[in-house]
Design goal:
Elements lengths: L8 H4 L2 E7 L2 E9 L5 E3 L7 E9 L8 E6 L10 E4 L2 E4 L4 E2 L3 E3 L8 H13 L4 E5 L17 E4 L3 E7 L1 H16 L3 E5 L14 H15 L5 E4 L12 H14 L6 E2 L17 E4 L10 H8 L3 E5 L3 E2 L10 H13 L3 E2 L3 E2 L19 H4 L7 H13 L7 E3 L7 E4 L3 E5 L7 E5 L5 E7 L4 E4 L7 E5 L6 E7 L2
Helix pairs in contact: 4-5, 7-9
Length: 476
């Protein structure tokens, strides 16, 4: 809609619209997009006739009405991701397994590098990307972005009463680019890695920022909210602040996108009703994915270990695990009924300088995107393929041996994962019925089926290597 451009429309004008569709009424907040243009953006989640009427403090924007005919979704468009018990599915019922990776500051890099990131994602197995709305200042993150959510610069300061619509349009383009690749944009709304003052804007600006972001982006089907990356490092905010800010997101998001919060040390209370799923960082140097089944029982929500450490070779303990260990953590989480997130932190000089774009040779995937160099993504894709073959497309934890976790679908498919152990054989006691038995090399990405079918107890010979698994499938 065309509206007033004088003064400061970001704070002077309030706009929303009431939509009526399918016998239901919802309120959707509007936003100022610059140059006298105002937008109300709704996610078309129900077919049929929609009507709307605007409400505004500006007379020219108040009482506008209209009708929209919403037709069926385009082929391949499955709608937002929703919680399905302890797992996820799209609005149309299509199974979603959040095989995710992290590139915190990729949208704050030069265009050439952003395009390289998209090209890499097009060939990778990931369907969720953790990314920040605010830029990042940290190790290997010294470059200055070209623009920011607020009007201004580091040197000249920022006007926290004015957003930069052009910046947000570029962010929206990247979210749309991810949607075209079938990737969810897991948007981190706050974080502590800051030199611009964005980590401590004060309650009023925090709220104005959240309302603007959610009103602009809740119309996208492939958006998830993450209230914070490492909420406990934002020392200007306490638990009451996070509850208040989460309520703002809930008020402005009429379409119920997924929302969670992520920790550094103390774990948030994921029982809070606004939290749709667990988004957790490793809680121990060695043991994290192994806690997945316990966390499912504790909170009764899907568990996503969004940060289990990163495959790489930098000098930080969180950024130098091997591809084998990254893959092992994915498998441990999977057989225990959860989902583990990927990241990569290979130091560019070790890559012969090939990771650089422009004058910045500190291009690490975990923050700036670019190219992937690790050995785990292909193995993660192999795991996802195996999960997709299960009835219902998910694994749940099953009764396990003391030394080996089992997961799968009770009575139909069972998977035992040996991790860093390396047995030469395993005696497997089968449930009632006839079962097919397969030996899986999770690192070599192979599946070898034993001839015939089995019942009772079967000795399964193994190669004495690490990272092996056994899958048994009941014959119908």
């Amino acid at each position: 809609f065309a509206g007033p451009a004088h003064g400061n429309p970001f704070v002077d004008v309030e706009l929303d619209a009431v939509f009526r569709r399918g016998g239901e009424e919802i309120r959707v907040g509007g936003f100022y997009d610059g140059d006298g243009v105002y937008v109300v953006r709704a996610l078309a989640d129900t077919t049929g006739t929609w009507t709307f009427e605007t409400r505004s403090t500006a007379r020219s924007l108040d009482g506008l009405t209209g009708t929209v005919e919403v037709i069926a979704a385009r082929e391949g468009s499955h709608g937002p991701v929703r919680v399905d018990g302890l797992h996820f599915q799209h609005a149309d019922g299509t199974r979603h397994r959040p095989v995710g990776t992290t590139a915190y500051a990729w949208i704050h890099q030069p265009e050439e590098l952003q395009q390289k990131t998209l090209a890499t994602l097009a060939e990778a197995p990931f369907v969720k990307l953790r990314m920040c709305v605010f830029p990042k200042s940290y190790l290997y993150n010294a470059n200055e972005p070209a623009d920011f959510p607020f009007i201004g610069t580091l040197e000249g300061g920022f006007d926290h009463t004015r957003f930069d619509p052009a910046h947000f349009r570029r962010l929206e383009q990247r979210i749309a680019d991810l949607a075209a690749l079938g990737i969810q944009a897991d948007l981190i709304l706050f974080h502590a890695y800051d030199r611009w003052g964005f980590a401590d804007l004060g309650p009023a600006v925090d709220e104005r920022y959240l309302r603007y972001v959610v009103r602009r982006l809740s119309g996208f089907a492939n958006v998830w909210w993450s209230m914070a990356n490492e909420y406990d490092l934002l020392w200007s905010k306490d638990l009451d602040d996070w509850e208040r800010l989460a309520a703002v997101v809930g008020e402005e998001d009429a379409f119920g996108h997924l929302n969670s919060i992520h920790n550094c040390r103390p774990v948030y209370d994921y029982a809070k009703p606004w939290i749709t799923h667990v988004s957790i960082q490793r809680v121990d140097v060695y043991r994290t994915a192994e806690n997945t089944d316990q966390w499912r029982e504790e909170w009764g929500k899907p568990v996503v270990i969004d940060e289990c450490a990163y495959e790489g070779d930098i000098d930080q303990g969180w950024g130098n695990i091997t591809g084998e260990e990254m893959t092992r953590r994915f498998w441990e989480g999977a057989v225990r009924g959860g989902y583990v997130g990927h990241g990569e932190t290979y130091y560019p000089p070790a890559l012969g300088g090939a990771a650089s774009v422009g004058d910045d040779d500190e291009v690490l995937w975990w923050s700036k995107g670019g190219a992937l160099h690790g050995s785990s993504p292909a193995r993660i894709g192999f795991l996802e393929l195996l999960q997709s073959q299960a009835p219902g497309g998910v694994w749940d934890p099953l009764p396990s041996d003391w030394d080996v976790p089992w997961g799968g679908v009770a009575g139909r498919v069972k998977v035992a994962y040996f991790g860093f152990n390396r047995p030469r054989f395993r005696n497997v006691i089968l449930d009632e019925g006839e079962w097919r038995v397969e030996v899986i090399d999770t690192w070599g990405m192979s599946v070898e089926e034993l001839p015939g079918t089995y019942h009772g107890q079967v000795r399964v010979d193994l190669p004495g290597r690490q990272f092996m698994a056994i899958r048994v499938t009941r014959e119908e």
